[in-house]
Amino acid sequence: MANDILIEIKNLSMYFPMTKGIIRQQKIAEVKAVDGVNFFIRKGETLGLVGESGCGKTTLGRCLLQLIRPTSGEVYFEGVDLCTMASDHLRSIRQRMQIIFQDPFDSLDPRMTAGEIVAEPLRVHTRIRGRELREKIAELLKIVGLDPSMKDRYPHQFSGGQRQRLGIARALAIRPSFIVCDEPISALDVSIQAQIINLLEDLQGEFDLTYLFIAHDLSVVRHISHRVAVMYLGKIVEVANRDALYRVAKHPYTIALLSAVPIPDPIVEASRERIILRGEIPSPIALPPGCNFHPRCPIGVEICQKEIPSPREIEEGHWVACHLA
Amino acid sequence: MADSRLQIEKPERKERGPVWDVFRRLSKRITAMMGLVIVVVFLLSALFAPLLAPHDPYEHSLADKLATPSWDYPLGRDELGRCILSRIIYGARISLLIGLIVISIGIFVGVPIGVVSAYFGGKVDFIVQRFVDTMLAFPGILLALLLIAMLGVGLHNVMIAVGISTIPIYARLARSSVLAIKSRQFVEAARSIGSSHLRIILQHLIPNSLSPIIVQSTLHMATAILWAAGLGFLGLGVSPPTAEWGAMLNGGRLYIRVAYHVATFPGLMIFVTVLGFNLLGDGLRDALDPRLKT
Question: Given CB 3.0 to 4.6 Å as the disulfide criterion, which of A272, A292, B118, B130 pairs with B178?
Answer without folding.
Answer: B118
